[in-house]
Design brief:
Chain lengths: ~200, ~300
C-alpha cells in the first residue's frame, strides 16, 4: 500500500535502498569454495559506488577514508581509491585475512548507508582464483541484496558454464540471485592494489 | 548521523510536487465519478461501455511495448554490441533498482530517448543515434538515468490507469458522434445529448489533467536521475543540448514518433506551437531551474 502510494504520487523518487544483510555470508562461503571447489580467496576486494557532487557526500567519504586508514593500521591491509571511466568510485582493499577483508567492506558500506547514501552503492566485489590462476568474482549487488558470479575470460568473454555451476553448488551458502539475466558483468575492475 | 539521513530524505523528495500531484489525481477521480454518474443517469449501457474500454486498455497495455518498438523502428542491441552503452545502462539500472533493462537504438538523427516496460523485469531504454552523437558520456548517462527513473516510478502503468476513463469518455463521444444513438422520444433524446456533452467535457478536462500529471512525473524523473548520477547539472546540459536540436528538426520527419511523445525525454513537437498547458513535458527552462535547485540542496545552500 505504501509502495503503491509512493508510485502514484511520485514519491518513489529515489533509487532503491541498499541491502547489507547478505554481504557477510561470503566470509563463510569462502571455506567450501576453497576446500571443495578449489577457488582460493584472493585477499582482494572492492566496493564500487556512484559519488554525488555534494558537501554531505564528501563528509561521508572523509569518514570512509578515516575508517580505511584505521583498518590499515590494525590489520595487514592496504587500500586504494580510484575512479573508473564511468565515473564510479572504487575502494580497493588488500588484506591477507579474508574475514578482515569482508568485515572492512561491510563497515565501509555501513558508513555510506548511515550518512544516507546507501542508494549510491552499486556493488562489492570479491576475487577468487582457480588452480590455473583464472579469476572468479563474486559480485554483491547492494540493491538486490544478493551475490552474482562473474568469471571473466580473455576478449571480454565469460565462463558462463562455470558461473552457472558455482551458483548451483553454493545455493545454500550464499544468497545468490536466481535470474541469470541479472548477472551483470563488471569489466576492468581496478585490481590489484598498486604501491601507494 | 540521523541529521544527515534526514538531509538526504529532504532532497530526495519534493513535497510541493507531491501535493500538486495529489490535487491532479483528486481532480481526475472527481471528474470520473461525475462522468460515471452522468453516464448511468443518461441511460447509456454503462456496463457494455466499461467492458469495451477495459478490453481496449488491456489490449493497449499488453501490446504497447511491441507496438511502440516496432512503430519507431527500434532495434534491440545484442549482448556484446556497443558494450560501453550497455554497461552504462546496466549500472544505472542496478543502481536505481530496476532489475532488467534492455537497450534499443533507433537509427535517426533526431536526438531523443524513451523507456517502455509494463513490467519491471522486461523493460527497454531506447536511444536514437542522434542522441549518442550529440551528448557526451556524462550527459548520456543522465538521460539514461531519467528514463530508468520512469521505469522505477512505473510511469507507463500509472498513466495508463489514470487515463482509463478518458479513454471511456472518448469512446462514448465517438459512439454518439457516429449517430449510433437511435431512439425517438424526447426524454431519451435529451439524455443522449447530455451524455454527448458530458463525455466531450470529461475527455477534454481529463486530457488536460493527464498532461499535468505527466509533467509532474517528468520533474520526479529528473530529480531521481540527478541523484543517481550524482550530477544534476549533467542532465540540465543534456536537456539544453537536446532542446536546441529538436526545435530545428522539421516536423515531417517526426510524425512517426509523435505518438510516443509522452515517453520521450523531450517531445519532438516544437514547443512554441503549443500552449504549455497542452504539453506532456514541462519547459526545459523550468526543468533546468529545478535541477539547479537540487544541486544547491546537495551542496547545502538554499
Amino acid at each position: 500500500m505504501r509502495r503503491f502510494l509512493d508510485i502514484l504520487l511520485g514519491r518513489a523518487a529515489r533509487p532503491a535502498p541498499a541491502k547489507l544483510e547478505g554481504l557477510l555470508t561470503i566470509a563463510s562461503a569462502a571455506i567450501p569454495l576453497e576446500a571443495q571447489l578449489g577457488f582460493r580467496p584472493c585477499r582482494l576486494a572492492g566496493m564500487v559506488f556512484k559519488p554525488i557532487e555534494s558537501v554531505y557526500f564528501e563528509r561521508a567519504q572523509e569518514e570512509l577514508e578515516q575508517l580505511l586508514r584505521i583498518a590499515v593500521r590494525e590489520t595487514q591491509s592496504r587500500f586504494r581509491l580510484s575512479t573508473d571511466s564511468y565515473r564510479y568510485r572504487w575502494v580497493i582493499l588488500e588484506d591477507p585475512d579474508f574475514e578482515d577483508l569482508v568485515a572492512t567492506i561491510q563497515a565501509a558500506s555501513q558508513i555510506l548507508t548511515e550518512h544516507g547514501f546507501g542508494e549510491q552503492l552499486l556493488a562489492a566485489v570479491f576475487r577468487f582464483d582457480d588452480q590455473q590462476g583464472q579469476p572468479l568474482f563474486w559480485i554483491y549487488q547492494y540493491k538486490l541484496g544478493a551475490f552474482t558470479p562473474f568469471a571473466p575470460r580473455k576478449g571480454r568473454q565469460r565462463d558462463e558454464a562455470l558461473e552457472l555451476r558455482l551458483a548451483a553448488v553454493l545455493e545454500h551458502e550464499l544468497p545468490i540471485e536466481r535470474r541469470p539475466e541479472l548477472w551483470y558483468a563488471l569489466w576492468d575492475i581496478p585490481f590489484p592494489v598498486t604501491q601507494e | 548521523m540521523v541529521y544527515s539521513m534526514r538531509r538526504v530524505e529532504r532532497w530526495a523528495r519534493d513535497p510541493g510536487l507531491t501535493v500538486r500531484m495529489m490535487i491532479v489525481l483528486a481532480g481526475l477521480a472527481l471528474l470520473y465519478l461525475f462522468f460515471l454518474s452522468a453516464l448511468i443517469w443518461s441511460g447509456v449501457d454503462t456496463a457494455t461501455v466499461l467492458v469495451i474500454a477495459v478490453l481496449l486498455a488491456l489490449f493497449q497495455f499488453v501490446f504497447s511495448d511491441r507496438l511502440a518498438l516496432a512503430s519507431v523502428g527500434a532495434r534491440i542491441l545484442r549482448p556484446g554490441e556497443m558494450p560501453r552503452l550497455q554497461e552504462m545502462v546496466e549500472r544505472v539500472a542496478a543502481l536505481t533498482g530496476v532489475p532488467r533493462v534492455r537497450v534499443g537504438i533507433i537509427e535517426i538523427p533526431v536526438p531523443n530517448a524513451f523507456a517502455i516496460g509494463k513490467r519491471l523485469t522486461s523493460s527497454t531504454v531506447v536511444v536514437t543515434r542522434g542522441l549518442l552523437e550529440l551528448l557526451n558520456e556524462e550527459e548520456l548517462e543522465a538521460v539514461i538515468a531519467h528514463e530508468v527513473a520512469h521505469l522505477r516510478n512505473r510511469d507507463v502503468l500509472v498513466m495508463t490507469i489514470a487515463g482509463f476513463f478518458v479513454v471511456v469518455a472518448q469512446l462514448v463521444f465517438r459512439f454518439f458522434l457516429w449517430g449510433a444513438g437511435g431512439g425517438s422520444d424526447r426524454r431519451r433524446g435529451n439524455a443522449i445529448a447530455l451524455a454527448f456533452v458530458v463525455s466531450l467535457l470529461v475527455w477534454i478536462i481529463g486530457q488536460l489533467l493527464l498532461l499535468a500529471l505527466s509533467r509532474y512525473r517528468e520533474f520526479v524523473a529528473d530529480r531521481m536521475a540527478g541523484i543517481v548520477t550524482g550530477r544534476p547539472l549533467a542532465l540540465a546540459s543534456a536537456l539544453w543540448k537536446i532542446d536546441g536540436r529538436v526545435k530545428r528538426i522539421p516536423r515531417r520527419d517526426l510524425r512517426e514518433v509523435e505518438e510516443l511523445a509522452a515517453f520521450f525525454i523531450i517531445p519532438p513537437i516544437s514547443r512554441e506551437s503549443l500552449a504549455s498547458l497542452l504539453s506532456t513535458h514541462p519547459p526545459v527552462e523550468e526543468r533546468v531551474r529545478r535541477l539547479e535547485q537540487l544541486q544547491r540542496q546537495l551542496e547545502g545552500v538554499r
